[in-house]
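Prompt: May I have another protein with tokenized structure?
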Amino acid sequence: MVGMGLIIRSSAIHAAGCYTMAPIRKGARVVEYTGPRISKDEADEKYQNSPTTYLFGVGDGKMVIDGHGTAMFINHSCDPNCETEEMDGRVWIMAIRNIVTGEELTYDYYLYDGDEDEARCNCGSVSCRKSMYSPEEIRRRARAAKRAAGKKVVRGGSRRRAVKR
């Protein structure tokens, strides 16, 4: 059911969160992620010094939705009750299980871009991966950090650091 009662209030996960005022059935379209569409480059420039953004990548990731609406308050969780689905160029938040009245809506952000930002997760779930980045991005960052730290190489009895380039 689109247009169901949703409210924004304080969240234990992060600042403000989006909560349902009625039960939501698994598979239901909950709310659309809306806002102006801008290029990723425009967003990078616009939010270069901003600690908080509500950007949602669409299509191949070259365009983003600059969130302006109820859905921008849906927080990340590693054990979410919703997921996002792109349909005909629109992004919908969909219930992946039954959600009870008063429950905070969450989805896994699976972040894939964010410079040096750690994007720490505060969801508190048992399965929390401690980051809002996707598992693939976490692995990529770990590999990059390992490469940057270099490898110890022994030559002629002395220890030297070799840095892969």
